[in-house]
Please model this.
Amino acid sequence: MNFELDEEHRQIRETVANFAEGEIKPHSAQWDRTEHFPREVIEKIGELGFLGVSFPERFGGGGADSLAQALVVETLSRYDASVGLTCAAHMSLSSGHIANFASDQHRERYLPAMIAGRKLGAWCLTEPGSGSDAAAMRTRAVREGDRYAISGSKMFITNGSVADVYVVMAVTDGAKGKGGISAFIVERGTPGLSNGRKIEKLGLRASDTAEVRFDNVAVPAGNLIGKAGEGYAQTLKILEGGRIGIAGFAIGIARGAFEDAVAYARERKQFGRAIADLQAIQWMLADMATRIEASWMLLYRAASTKDQGKPFGRQAAMAKLYASETAMWTTIKAVQIHGGYGYVTDFPVERYMRDAKLAEIGEGTSEVQRMIIAKSLLKEGYLAG
Ligand SMILES: Cc1cc2nc3c(=O)[nH]c(=O)nc-3n(C[C@H](O)[C@H](O)[C@H](O)COP(=O)(O)OP(=O)(O)OC[C@H]3O[C@@H](n4cnc5c(N)ncnc54)[C@H](O)[C@@H]3O)c2cc1C
Model:
């Protein structure tokens, strides 16, 4: 067992960090304030190869492992969680769904442009009336000769109003429950595809979140991903992988909050000495660092289990659960260490705190992760090692 990152992974983290220091960090506060979606930066991230780091080389990817992709998301999120989430949804969800389950023809058609950042992806599962219980979706896809007509509405979709390629889950056979759900590729510009109202958010304000509407959207029958009825099983697999990404996203935010808190504690003087000399502050820093490190170990284990081709659902759920609660806890403590300055927008810690909350909600809430973990350990037994 090796707990250190190897040279290749260290290099990825360093290259992304250098890029983010120069091209993202100086603008993050303003993008958040003005809700500016930095499309140009996402394209650059694609040009540099970061969006495809773990995708097969034959589609223009880097051929690296899952840890590499998590490192990209983590490092971007350390500087700007909105950018991190945008890339995570693009890579793990939409591009990942096409890479894992679409035909070769579709992979060749979409992946090179998505990996290069020329086309942006969105993944449409959640609906106004169905979130945790995703199988209760109401969007329907009806076969009409050599095409499907999709009707319904999807809610809270990351990149929903800016994407070029949509992966959409819809019911094709209402009598079959989960086995009657299918996944489709829908391109921007297809008649009947539109966006609902702009969604204003607590955090991640520079990421795009939209309602996506389908009004009798006709797609060729060939746009079905895999076979009819396989959509729900595909979704569960994609979410398992996506949770490793969200763990990285959460760790990135927590790391930012921790580093800023340490720097502030060293500088801020009260009662004639740096607040870093106070045990109350030291204990918070110690707990932050310990939780971040534990989150890393869980992420590392989930990613390496996945890369060995073994079932990794429980590990991914544990990593996502622990990292997201760590991000929330750590950012709250970072605000506390900054005192009044933590509560105002002059320092980025209040933004970290607002951004962190999504990690406990998206791609399965903390309650859903606990359900997954409990179900797995009661069925298969436990322990690690
Ligand atoms: C910024 C943002 C980006 C998102 N991006 C995407 C995206 O790109 N694509 C997409 O498809 N979706 C996306 N989502 C949706 C997200 O995945 C859902 O919000 C999430 O799965 C929770 O669903 P819900 O909001 O309907 O909450 P609900 O499912 O209604 O849950 C409400 C509460 O009830 C709890 N609960 C529900 N069921 C149970 C249970 N059985 N046991 C215990 N507690 C339970 C939940 O944990 C939660 O606390 C995004 C959401 C946000 C906010």
About this structure: The beta strands are 121-124, 140-144, 147-158, 165-171, 181-187, 193-198, 209-220, 224-225, 269-270, 273-274. The domain at 7-120 is CATH 1.10.540.10 (Butyryl-Coa Dehydrogenase, subunit A; domain 1). The pocket of flavin-adenine dinucleotide is lined by residues 89, 123-126, 131-132, 156-158, 201, 204, 209, 358, 361-365, 367-368, 371 (CB under 6 Å).
